[in-house]
Design goal:
The protein is α/β, with parallel strands linked by helices. It has 2 domains: 185 residues, Glycogen Phosphorylase B (Rossmann fold, 3-Layer(aba) Sandwich); 166 residues, Rossmann fold. Helix content is 34%, strand content 17%. The chain has 14 helices and 14 strands. The strands form 2 sheets. The chain has an 8-stranded mixed sheet with strand order 3-4-2-1-5-6-7-8, sandwiched between helices. It is elongated. It starts with a strand and ends with a helix.
Length: 369
């Protein structure tokens, strides 16, 4: 049995931790997905997820109030007792602890002889990085920047790129949503939280104003008091989708002609080195116009990326004028093939190979049902 400790809850929106849990379940493992603590909850609650019989959602109250301030040995003892209670609740033994955060359970010694994996997918997860890396058997990261940080504490650190869920279902939208693309104009799409501080609002609003002939689709949560909405709410060429079911994203991306990444790259280079959305974009096959994204500096055949955001509008204009070339069948196939090479099934194969390299694979295999 495998315990995944996540900083984000199951079901709020599908994130990499959930995809790894689902992929492990399909591979024959029983997976416990531990959500962030639920205040006021009485005891441990374990429920099978709706669509994945081998993946179980775990909700618990905080292990102990102010636990991070306890002496290390006492804190580990409390966490070890908590894990043993969880095992009694499920009637099984956890063989692998897979930690995706570093604000709780960061001293992985609490897991004893179990396989201890620390996996950092975001640079801004920055609480107890040193202790998590030091006490893990092996570490995984998604960027060179994170790897360099972890390698200072654990030489068994490896970069495993962001994965992508490759859907087998039809990439078609319901009839009522297809109408959003029925104008016969060119369509550009941006997927993600529209209120996060990393979005270059000035650049994105200027893009909307400079290309009135292009319909811009903003897909993701936003506030009407947010900076981007206030800057673009009166534009007649913007469609505000709001938050949508993750299952609709591939179909929306396929309907778009151009996909956008517009971040404050000069200000947050390391944090924005490998956006999660990039793999979903590439899986659609459509051309991506991006501000500087460090993990793709040597993969420019996949996208149009500017080194300086001041060149973004000029690059976007070139793509608009030559869209047929940029979205040729050959170029789309290259992008799709790259994404497929990073499906979660293949990412798990890479992780398994790295575990085997250090004779750690047997414990992962023991996590099977």
């Amino acid at each position: 049995m495998i315990l995944i400790i996540s900083p984000e809850s199951w079901g709020a929106h599908t994130v990499s931790k959930q995809h790894y849990a689902i992929t492990l379940g399909k591979a024959g493992c029983r997976v416990l997905f531990l959500n962030p603590p639920t205040k006021g909850l009485d005891g441990i609650q374990v429920e099978a997820t709706a669509e994945h019989s081998d993946v179980f959602e775990v909700n618990t109250p905080p292990v102990a109030k102010g636990l991070r301030f306890y002496p290390a040995r006492f804190r580990r003892w409390i966490e070890q007792r908590w894990l043993e209670r969880l095992e009694r609740e499920i009637g099984g033994i956890v063989k692998v602890v897979w930690l995706f955060e570093n604000s709780r359970f960061f001293d992985m010694k609490f897991a004893g002889e179990r396989l201890k994996i620390y996996h950092q997918v975001d640079l801004n997860q920055d609480f107890q990085v040193e202790r998590a890396a030091l006490t893990a058997d092996i570490c995984f990261s998604t960027t060179d920047f994170i790897s360099q940080k972890l390698q200072a504490f654990n030489k068994h650190t490896y970069k495993v790129h962001h994965g992508v869920f490759v859907a087998n279902n039809s990439r078609t939208l319901p009839d009522n949503l297809v109408n959003n693309f029925s104008s016969g104009k060119m369509h550009a799409g941006y997927i993600g939280n529209l209120d996060i501080p990393y979005v270059d609002v000035s650049l994105l609003s200027e893009l909307v104003k400079s290309f009135p002939e292009v319909i811009f689709h903003f897909v993701g949560s936003y506030s009407q008091t947010g900076e981007l909405y206030r800057a673009c709410s009166n534009a007649g060429n913007v469609i505000w989708w709001g938050r949508v079911e993750s299952t609709l994203i591939p179909a929306i991306l396929t309907q778009c002609d151009i996909l956008l990444i517009t971040y404050l790259a000069e200000n947050f280079r390391e944090q924005l080195a490998s956006p999660h959305k990039m793999m979903e974009y590439l899986a659609s096959g459509k051309i991506v116009v991006a501000t500087y994204t460090d993990e793709y500096k040597d993969k420019r055949q996949l996208l149009e990326m500017v080194d300086d955001s001041r060149d973004y509008l000029k690059t976007f204009s070139r793509v608009v004028e030559n869209l047929g070339e940029y979205n040729s069948l050959e170029k789309q196939e290259v992008r799709i093939e790259y994404a497929q090479q990073h499906s979660y099934d293949r990412q798990l194969d890479k992780i398994f190979a790295l575990l085997k390299k250090h004779d750690l694979d047997k414990k992962l295999l023991e996590g099977r049902a």
